[in-house]
């Protein structure tokens, strides 16, 4: 059975206000000459000062105080000598890199050979081979091959476009430095176990594992996982999941498109696996479904929520390619959203109410269900930008 995932949304951007450096107002008042290559360094200065260690921060502060700002506008580009240490310059260009702006990054790598060396691997850290068009699109002329850039990849989402075992095997064979991997649209993982066993850094996996035996699940790579999403888990898999989790480093389990809603099996997983911090189940839920379906779902969820505070039920529409990419890029995703719900339940921030009657969605009205103490906690989450925001 092939489980469909919704496609990729628009790139997500995040902007933060930054304090103005004492010299910034002076910089803004300078006439606009032919700007030297170091302009990008000036624009990112306040961000860098918050990111680097104290010795380097003091160096930069001393550097800006020593710049002849009035004379700078009258000097040619060739007269300006870079004075930043290489490690600071490296940090600046790394922070300037935008994973969602391939065109800007293509320009950035032309600044200097050393910048090309720093930025080029970052351009292929995320391989999205599910969305239309894929990124990168290996079928396009001029696109580097997976043999050339596969070693740079840390995150791979594959399915639909590469839907044969041979194609996926070829990708995985050249992407052995992966940290996160999603294999969707019914990809059979059994013949790919040898590829997984070569990935010593893999920690997050989303895949259909129903063809794996209990012995297969003892793979060293699978035992090193911390987050695992099992797609369309069958009854046999649910029975031996507890023994797998007990032997593994898994702290977060998500069951997507669960075929068997057996409360006893779910309760067994939670009771047998104290190291689990969150067990997330997805369920399709729409107001247009029959009243009988909605009523049965409500009763089922209320009973299941009573078993353990680590249980979270999300609407399956949330766990998409969009969400996977959000998490990879450092945004709040369904994994962290589940953690947030577990925290709210464990600290009794959520009032008893209808939140238990249906799955959580990205539109959940937190303030309408929180205690006063919970509202203060949620306000802090907002200040820390840990509020779930869906790509649009």
Automatic annotation (TrEMBL):
Q: Which SUPFAM superfamilies match?
A: RNI-like
Positions with biased composition (Low complexity): 11-25
InterPro entries found in the cross-reference section: LRR_dom_sf
Q: Which organism is it from?
A: Panaeolus cyanescens
Q: Which Gene3D superfamilies match?
A: Ribonuclease Inhibitor
Protein's name according to its UniProt entry: F-box domain-containing protein
Q: Where is this region: Disordered?
A: 1-32
């Amino acid at each position: 059975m092939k489980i469909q995932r919704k496609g990729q949304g628009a790139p997500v951007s995040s902007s933060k206000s930054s304090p103005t450096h004492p010299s910034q107002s002076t910089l803004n008042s300078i006439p606009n000459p032919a700007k030297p290559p170091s302009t990008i360094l000036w624009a990112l200065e306040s961000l860098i000062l918050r990111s680097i260690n104290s010795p380097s921060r003091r160096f930069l502060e001393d550097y800006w105080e020593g710049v002849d700002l009035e004379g700078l506008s009258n000097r040619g580009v060739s007269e300006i000598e870079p004075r930043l240490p290489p490690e600071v310059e490296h940090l600046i260009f790394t922070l300037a890199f935008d994973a969602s702006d391939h065109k800007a990054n293509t320009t950035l790598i032309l600044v200097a050979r050393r910048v090309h060396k720093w930025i080029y691997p970052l351009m292929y850290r995320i391989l999205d081979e599910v969305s239309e068009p894929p990124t990168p699109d290996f079928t396009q002329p001029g696109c580097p091959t997976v043999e050339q850039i596969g070693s740079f990849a840390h995150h791979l989402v594959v399915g639909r476009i590469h839907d044969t075992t041979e194609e996926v095997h070829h990708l995985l064979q050249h992407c052995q430095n992966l940290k996160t991997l999603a294999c969707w649209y019914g990809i059979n993982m059994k013949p790919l176990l040898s590829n997984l066993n070569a990935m010593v850094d893999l920690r997050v996996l989303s895949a259909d594992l129903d063809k794996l035996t209990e012995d297969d699940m003892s793979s060293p790579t699978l035992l090193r996982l911390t987050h695992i999403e099992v797609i369309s888990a069958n009854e046999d898999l649910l029975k031996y999941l507890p023994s797998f989790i007990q032997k593994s480093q898994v702290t977060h389990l998500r069951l997507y498109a669960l075929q068997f809603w057996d409360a006893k099996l779910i309760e067994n997983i939670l009771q047998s696996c104290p190291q689990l911090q969150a067990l997330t189940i997805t369920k399709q839920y729409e107001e247009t479904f029959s009243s009988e379906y909605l009523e049965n779902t409500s009763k089922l969820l209320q009973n299941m929520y009573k078993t353990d505070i680590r249980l979270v039920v999300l609407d399956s529409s949330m766990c998409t390619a969009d969400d996977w990419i959000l998490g990879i890029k450092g945004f709040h995703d369904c994994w962290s959203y589940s953690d947030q719900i577990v925290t709210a339940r464990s600290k009794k921030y959520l009032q008893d109410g209808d939140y238990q009657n249906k799955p959580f969605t990205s539109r959940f009205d937190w303030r309408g269900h929180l205690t006063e103490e919970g509202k203060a906690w949620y306000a802090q989450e907002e200040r820390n930008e840990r509020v779930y925001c869906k790509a649009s």
